[in-house]
Amino acid sequence: MGPKQGDNGPMQIHLDLIVAFLAVMETGGVNAAARRLGLSRSVVSKRIMDLEAALGVGLFVRSTVQMTPTEAAQEYYARTAFLVQELEDAANDVRPDASGLSGTLRLAAPLSLSISHLRDVYVAFAGQHPDLHLAIDLDDRVVDLAGGGYDVAIRVGRLPDSSLKARRLADSRRVLCGAPSYLEQHGEPQALEELIQHRTIGYANTPTSQMWRFASANPDGPEQTVRVLPGFVSNNGETMRAAAIAGMGLVVLPEFLVNDALRDGQLRAVLADTQPLADGVYVVYPPGRGKSRKVRAFIDHLVEAFTGGPPWAID
What we know:
5-stranded mixed beta sheet; 38% helix; alpha/beta; D-Maltodextrin-Binding Protein, domain 2; 10 helices; single chain
């Protein structure tokens, strides 16, 4: 059903047009969108053109090989994806036979933590809810939940003030460490002030990679900030760990990334009495998504998985 001219206003945009648009955005093309929706390619194409006519703006730049979303399409997707998802969730939640979860749950999660410790958690949740499609996007960068159409995210760090709702799952201690080969060649620092004299490894996903923050030795004292000059920078924790093991410098990394290397002697903690400021592991979600049964169920599943403390804690 295409757009219709209202009696006293502009064209009405029917939901099936928006659903077709979302499917094209999320699958990357008309053919894949048609397969997802169980429609013909011509029907999906017609709905996209009807939506463009109703909006009065082009949503895609078309070529013989692909459809590239315009800036207007990106903005429209960010504003409509959650609305349609809310409608689908409401329908699923009120059906008399809605005993299980269905629809799609879109999760954004950090790559390093997911690969090292949370893969089995995701798989177990999916296995418990076979009618639910779990779509997981792994990226160590902080993504825009609303703009990306995500229902929920897992984040490691110190959360900035935002409109997102958050639940803390666990502490994430960080460790200052280096390879024995590096420490033997360059010496082990005895005070924070000496770190500026050492080669260091930085994290590219934070603008403060040159500023390392440490807790005060005095419980009531202020935190301490030390400036370093990283000679090796990466946006991936595993790569930073590999560089440290290879003796390329000192590094501050989450405990979940270095615990095995510390146990095996590939890395050695330094300045053990002065701890880097700890991060937290959080599950975050937009305010409206907390009412969704599938989001609540996933959060409960994560909380249970972290009961008793994080699985990577060093004894």
